[in-house]
Amino acid sequence: MKKLRIVAAIVIVLAMIAQIAPMSVLAVGGDYTEKEIHIYRDSMEEDETVTCRFYSDLPEIPYIDFEVFLSVFNKDAVTLEEYGEGCLLATVVRDEEPVYAMIDYENDTITFSNISSFLYSPATEGEAEGEFYYLYMDVVYGEYVDEPAPSSVDLGAYGIDIVEEDGKLFFPVPTLSDLYSSVNQAVVYWNGEVFYYNSVVMDGGAKSQDPAALSILVKNMERSATLANYTYNEICFNIDNFFGFPCTQSPFMDKVQEVGLDKALDEYDPECKQLILAPESEYHIAGIYRLFNFWLCDGGHTGAYMNDLIETLYLDEDDYYRVVGAIRTYGYPDTDYENVYVDYNDSYMDTLYQIYFTKVAVLADEYYIEQGDTAMIEFDEFNIDFAAWEPFLKGETDFPVSEDESDTFLFVLSCLERAKQNPEIKNIVFDLSMNGGGYVAVYIALMSLINGTAEYNLYDRYTGEMVLLDYAADVNLDGVLDEADLNVWQEYSDFNFAVLTSMCSFSCGNMFPSAMKDAGLMVIGEQSGGGTCPLDYNSTAEGLEYITSAGDSMLINANCENIDDGVPVDADLLEYDDEGNKDYSKFFDLELISRLMHEFYGDVVIPGDVDGDGAVTLKDVLMLRQAIAGTADLTEDQLAAADVNGDGAVNLKDVLALRRIVAGGEQ
Fold it and tell me: Residue 315: is it exposed, middle or buried by C-beta count within 10 angstroms (0-12/13-18/19+)?
């Protein structure tokens, strides 16, 4: 019965999407040729092939058997069964439960019972462990605010044809790449000759080793109109269905969500559309650059990065300047439209330099600084030194050792231990003012270290599902996750914690202060820079790489609120000069920060309040006299309160000053 209910819901969604006005579908059934395509994963030395079809109507684009794609690239299995005229029901298993997709190959639509679960790739479980399991971590609490709803994608609306033959389904490889790409799984790059694939996208794989990786865009080559249209439609399909749309201040992105990318470009920048569709490769590249680096710019995640392309593909001077000239001429539109996120990117580096030189001038060029009762720990990324962890995880060493600050968790751990050795240190400030993000696993480890657990709250734009998770990590490094790890934070519970942020604090540098605030810890400085979506690695049908903010797991705070505009501070330290320029000097005034932290945590020492009851009375005079006489012992906080005149010593002068305060009723 459960399967019937789910399929019934899918059928309802299918009826709803029939209202979309599609582009004309390029039907590719009929004549085709088969070809064995080489697959290169981690290196160019591998000898692996997969069979693809090339239809005469779309000869540049490989089609592949859906079941073969999942098996070869995703380590996944799917069963297909007929379900009504022109439809196949696809079933995959996730956590021993079936997940369904109704594939209507007549109308070229797919409707999912749970799209995020169906498109999850088991290939990421083993090969991506370097990111999330450099030390063991797991969910210790989970709450689902909303259950996932069925959702659909209409390939036909973008001219993309699904082919059925004898109960098998054939998809364009670029389309399946878009469907299954994620932060951990790379797309399958097609360059007209071979596939490049690596499930751990940040490693680069064979594609980064091959100077001919983009041979389909070789110099002076003109693209066919059929290929140009397919590439453009595929981009529209990917953005309309899988972009995260994290920005709250972009009228263009609002328009894309309302009417789709194609119509939004028609309204805002038809020239950009013409560039992407241009037969000349240099104008096409400039159009891609313009779309992702201006119109879809979201302040840090989304972009088309052309440096590697230009350096490896266009080698001679004439071609180099031809492409660079096109980007410089057409890479940004001639428009009055202001994208605040482009402005943010433009000012980002200037702000980084300003913060850095301010810190050097006010404090020092050091990652760990102690001053008075406050220690500041700077880390500019959430990074993992895999070379330090590998021998430890293999049991070859008793403790992971990183030579410098390159492993954030190990560095912060050493700094906290160093602070424990100084009895004067009461406050710990994590300086994230120049932190641009990094590995989520490091964020989880650090929050677990100081808080016991780390929140990881997600909103799935595809399904409407919200999930609130608490992770814990093996922060005592004994190889197991247990109660002892949840209590490590108590070793540092005597410290007051604060995080220092700026507009440059992005991605994990934005998530960390959000979690700190949700945990009741202090956030100071300037409101952070946002960045709530994970990265989605993509490729056009012709091999041009671009990165987007994904929509399947947008970060939210404990109140289920979007934090893409940044995390508000509890103490604003930013100032402006007479000309309106930012002044970051107070970011590194540790005496001021110490006072603000003591006020925030309610542990301000009141001069004369020796017994700590919040009032200055004769009881304090008596206690101070007993201490001076040697008949009573005072704690550090009591000694600080006993130094009434602030001369650094506790003696009869303080007794006289305290008696005057009590006699005069002064506090």
Answer: exposed
Query: Pairing state of beta strands 522-525 and 571-572?
Result: parallel
Q: How many domains does the chain have?
A: 3
514 and 390 share one domain: yes
Asked if pLDDT for residue 3 goes beyond 70, the answer is: no
pTM score, whole prediction: 0.78
Place of tokens 């490989």: 62
- Number of CB atoms found within 10 A of residue 580's CB: 6
65 phi/psi in degrees, rounded to 5: -60, 125
**What is the distance, to the nearest Å, from the Cα of residue 453 to the centroid of all Cα atoms in its chain?**
19
* Phi, psi angle pair for 182, to nearest 5°: -160, -175
Same domain for 437 and 523 = yes
Q: How many CB atoms lie within 10 A of CB 300?
A: 24
- Using a pLDDT cut of 70, give the percent of the chain over it: 86
**Is residue 305 located within the same domain as residue 443?**
no
Among 313, 337, 361, the domain-final residue is 337
Question: How many whole angstroms separate alpha carbon 32 and alpha carbon 27?
Answer: 12
The verdict on 565 and 659 lying in the same domain is no
Q: Tell me the angle at which helices 261-268 and 225-242 cross, rounded to the nearest 10 degrees.
A: 100
pLDDT score of 308? 55
Identity of the residue numbered 287: G
Whether residue 347 has pLDDT greater than 60: yes
Output the six-digit token pair for 531.
């960045």
Q: How many helices (H) and strands (E) does the chain have?
A: 23, 26
**Tell me, what's the pLDDT at 522?**
98
Residue 128 has what pLDDT? 39
**Do residues 234 and 254 share a domain?**
yes
Planar angle of CA 495, 497, 501, nearest 5 degrees: 160
User: What are the residues whose beta carbons fall under 8 Å from the beta carbon of 482, sequence distance 6 or more?
Assistant: none
Are both 422 and 527 inside the same structural domain? yes
The answer to the question of residue 95 being in a domain is no
CA 385 centroid distance within chain: 19
**Nearest in space to 61 (alpha carbons), one of 28, 106, 22:** 28
For 85-110, how does the pLDDT look when each residue is reduced to its tens digit (9 = 90+)?
999 999 999 888 999 999 999 999 99
Residue written as token pair 């920005």: 247
CB within 8 Å of 618: residues ≥ 6 apart: 662
Range picked from 147-151, 545-549, 585-589 for highest mean pLDDT: 585-589
Report the run of H or E that residue 556 belongs to, with start and end: strand 554-556
In a domain, 61, yes or no: no
Distances (CA, A) of 425 to 128, 301, 409, 421: 39, 37, 20, 9
Asked whether residue 378 falls in the same domain as residue 236, the answer is no
Query: d(Cα 566, Cα 432) in Å, to the nearest integer?
Result: 13
Q: Please report where in the chains the tokens 């899918």 appear, as a residue.
A: 10
Q: Are strands 427-431 and 496-501 parallel, antiparallel or unpaired?
A: parallel
Question: Same domain for 434 and 505?
Answer: yes
> Which residues constitute the domain of residue 655?
618-664
Residues 6+ apart with CB under 8 A from 255: 263, 264, 267, 268
Task: Quote the distance between the C-alpha of residue 425 and its chain's center.
Answer: 33
- Give the count of alpha carbons within 13 A of 84, CB side only: 13
Residue 394: inside a domain, yes or no?
yes
Rg (CA), the chain: 30
Residue among 261, 268, 282 at smallest CA distance from 218: 282
